[in-house]
């Protein structure tokens, strides 16, 4: 698992909690009691000490009234729905994210149980227990937000290079070392080919590798802005084509190498025109580059059922992911055989 995937999984969990209106309302009405001294409250509830400030009792009584104003049935239903969403998230996450999700699921269950106990038997004691559960979940969520913020600043520092822009791309499956090297090589070849097309010097604007993580594969790159925008668009078009055709046909359609077919799939000429490039003067170069770009995109995207480009996800779909990988492996071996035959002929 890359740091990018770890952060993405944590952010999904954070969003589930942040966007839940019912939980937000419970936290809002309870937050005024979060700073109450636990020892003092225990003294009040267990020992019934007359020395305890009456404001503690008043706060809990007020909290009791506020919570009872919420619609009982709807609150229980929404909290259980959130619980189910977190459990569903758990099925798709890996370590170390699982530990965080399991903790939050347990804390949310405590909120649900103590809320139900309070509704069944309203008292200062049961509302206090409910408040403690809400406070515990809120604190765990705050810790999650802190982790996200610290990781984001450390892993994704804001970088600026004059005339450059960023490409972040994450592949979910890359596990073979040879594929890892091949994908890095393909990115470099694609960038160089596009630089040549748009007359950008790779010496003046080299492809800067800011971060590489292997397990899955996460690349954070910087390159000349116009070229990076073209590269991003071509990768997005290519992965969409491969996933779309596999879903519809039940087999992988590699990006074709014929110039006309490449134009239909990738719209290279149109993308160059949109970038302000006069394609009439470089038409022959465009045709030659189209074949190279097609080949390198196939290498880059083969085996990849899930790809994230600058935060936008592209997925073949979990229900056909295993089949996609098997088909990809077959095409990968076929490509190797073809290269071997061409070498023998040479």
Order of strands side by side in the largest beta sheet?
2-3-1-4-5
Low-confidence segments, given as residue ranges, are 324-346
Give the number of helices.
13
Question: How much of the sequence is in beta strands?
Answer: 5-15%
First-to-last CA distance: 41 Å
The secondary-structure element order is HHHHHHHEHEEHHHHEEH
- What's the rounded overall pLDDT mean? 79
Number of spatially distinct domains: 2
| Gross geometry | elongated
Helix content: 55-70%
Largest sheet: 5 strands, antiparallel
Secondary structural class:
alpha+beta
Number of strands: 5
Integer-rounded radius of gyration: 28 Å
Main features:
346 residues; alpha+beta; Four Helix Bundle (Hemerythrin (Met), subunit A); 2 domains; 5-stranded antiparallel sheet; elongated
Structural notes for this entry:
This protein has 346 residues and is of the alpha+beta class. It folds into two domains: 3-155, Four Helix Bundle (Hemerythrin (Met), subunit A) (Up-down Bundle); 164-345, no CATH class. It has 13 helices and five strands. It has helices at 3-18, 21-30, 38-47, 54-69, 72-90, 97-120, 124-155, 177-197, 225-249, 259-266, 268-274, 283-301, 321-345, and strands at residues 164-171, 208-214, 217-224, 306-309, 312-315. A five-stranded antiparallel β-sheet has the order 2-3-1-4-5, with helices on both faces. A hairpin with a 2-residue loop joins strand 2 and strand 3 (217-224). Helix 1 runs antiparallel to helix 7. The longest helix has 32 residues, at 124-155. The radius of gyration is 28 Å and the shape is elongated. 30% of the residues are buried.
